[in-house]
């Protein structure tokens, strides 16, 4: 069986890719997500990725680099630009690791998410594959969106409510919490 390095953004998003890849490849998981803020969230997602890997008996490598300071150096916080940067740092690091450690293929659980820019992830994956001489295995894991959710609930895996960076946390909660607090405590 050929080997493949699976970049894992979190536990729930890894479930369906593992189910698809395990019959074709010898999988090694690779957690590398310095864009997940704050630290508590990073380690919660890491812990739940470990639970998924243990459940499926997937070998794994965990890189718990925390990139908040670097992320702030990148000042363009408009969603499209910051997400390109965020995909690129993760895929580049994964391709490099795959190349340095003898993997023939690499891929990413980012291809499972309906909320990410799928086309861009594929393009970046293929480009970094060429740069580091490791083949990017493209698969549209979004086909298993519902299965992944169902299984993660059955396994009681933590399911995050925002994408990862501090800006996505703001977009997810700011309006909702502000409305709630105002209507509860500060009625006009
Ligand atoms: S919204 Fe998600 S993909 Fe975009 S920069 Fe933030 S963590 Fe990365």
Automatic annotation (TrEMBL):
One of its GO terms (molecular function) is metal ion binding. Catalyzes the conversion of epoxyqueuosine (oQ) to queuosine (Q), which is a hypermodified base found in the wobble positions of tRNA(Asp), tRNA(Asn), tRNA(His) and tRNA(Tyr). InterPro entries: QueH. It holds the Pfam family QueH. Disulfide bonds join 163-165. Pathway: tRNA modification; tRNA-queuosine biosynthesis. It is an enzyme of class 1 (oxidoreductase). It comes from Calditerrivibrio nitroreducens (strain DSM 19672 / NBRC 101217 / Yu37-1). Its EC number is 1.17.99.6. It comes from the Bacteria. [4Fe-4S] cluster binds at residues 9-10, 83, 86. Belongs to the QueH family. Keywords: 4Fe-4S, Disulfide bond, Iron, Iron-sulfur, Metal-binding, Oxidoreductase, Queuosine biosynthesis, Redox-active center, tRNA processing. This is Epoxyqueuosine reductase QueH. GO terms for biological process: tRNA queuosine(34) biosynthetic process. It catalyses: epoxyqueuosine(34) in tRNA + AH2 = queuosine(34) in tRNA + A + H2O.
């Amino acid at each position: 069986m050929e080997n493949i390095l699976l970049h894992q953004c979190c536990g729930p998003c890894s479930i369906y890719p593992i189910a698809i890849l395990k019959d074709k490849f010898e999988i090694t998981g690779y957690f590398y997500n310095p864009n997940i803020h704050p630290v508590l969230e990073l380690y919660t997602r890491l812990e739940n990725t470990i639970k998924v890997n243990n459940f499926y008996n997937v070998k794994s490598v965990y890189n718990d680099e925390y990139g908040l300071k670097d992320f702030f150096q990148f000042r363009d916080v408009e969603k499209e630009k910051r997400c390109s940067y965020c995909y690129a740092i993760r895929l580049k690091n994964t391709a490099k690791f795959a190349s340095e450690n003898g993997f023939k293929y690499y891929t990413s659980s980012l291809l499972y998410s309906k909320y990410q820019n799928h086309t861009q992830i594929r393009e970046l994956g293929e480009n970094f594959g060429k740069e580091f001489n490791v083949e990017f295995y493209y698969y549209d894991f979004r086909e298993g969106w519902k299965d992944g959710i169902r299984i993660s609930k059955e396994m009681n895996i933590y399911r995050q409510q925002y994408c990862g960076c501090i800006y996505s946390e703001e977009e997810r909660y700011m309006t909702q919490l502000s409305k709630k607090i105002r209507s509860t405590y500060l009625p006009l």
